[in-house]
UniProtKB/TrEMBL annotation:
Protein name as it appears in the record: Patched domain-containing protein 3-like
Region (Disordered): 1-97
UniProt source species: Panthera pardus (Leopard)
Gene that this sequence comes from: LOC128777118
GO cellular component annotations of the record: membrane
Residue spans of biased composition, Basic and acidic residues class: 19-32
Amino acid sequence: MSLRPCKVAPEAWPEAEAPAEREPRSEARREPTSGPGSELLRASKHESEQFFSGRQEPEMTWASGQLPEPAGAPHSHPVSVRGDSSLPASPSENQVSERPRCHTDCLEAPLSCLFRRLGCEVGAHPWIFLLVPMVLTATLGTGLIYLPKDVEENLEEQYTPIGSPAKAKRRFVQERFTANDSYRFSISRKSTEVNFACIRAVSNTTSLLEPAILSEVSKVDDVIQDLYAMGENGTQIHYNQVCAKHQGLCVSSNPLLYAWQMNRHLDLRNVTFPIYNHTGQPIYLAGTIGGTFLGERMGMNQLLLEAKAVRLLYYLKTEDEEDNEHSGLLYINFYTTGT
């Protein structure tokens, strides 16, 4: 059994023939029916064909940024490109531009309108807006004459809310760090305001660690402790009545000065800083002696060679309400006398 060779004619690609077959149909559909307007349409179509046939299409090269269309590609209408015009916007850009914008002047617009109206009113009636605030301020300011003048301000009672967390925390500290101003005063254990007076004595010489200079400072200390104030009933309130005490005695204004007052023959050349061991009791001098010049080291301390200034502190009792009132009077008298 043998197979006979047969000749087969090459068939055209269906994709290439499909557009050619469809074009006549589409053209047939597009042609309008005969009528009075058909001749005008045909004439305009003929003129447009002559116009496009007369134009010479530019070459599509790589230099121009366009490529020639491949054979068999669908025909696209020519687009005229001007040198000044930009490329047509893409569909995504058109969608973005068509989106509604969010208006954020919901607060600015009414405020602007309100202030515009206010400005118009002020410009139309200026004297009203000038005189009314002045009269209102003068009228309300007359209430200041009813404020008490002789009552001392209490920051805790007037500016701290009742039952505030700050007061509760301070009571917690006071219960665990007790202080007794009449017998065992300690400034480090105080959690409230303390009335005290301070004097700084500065020497004109190289050092005040001299008996003659300390005697002058001691005289100032005696004058301060002799001060007194007059109470409401005409009674005298002395310093030793309202001073903060430690073991029945007023707290010394300066520990080094107090040590020298107790022993006038104290050797001031062997004083150590910042802690001085006086008769077996350590004394901390860093807060009361200034302008120091130190020498050789002696253990944890150094020898105090020179001191330029000394500070005297006078603490008053504030634990009881009566003592706080009396110490306040003496405090005022102290600064009145000092000035």
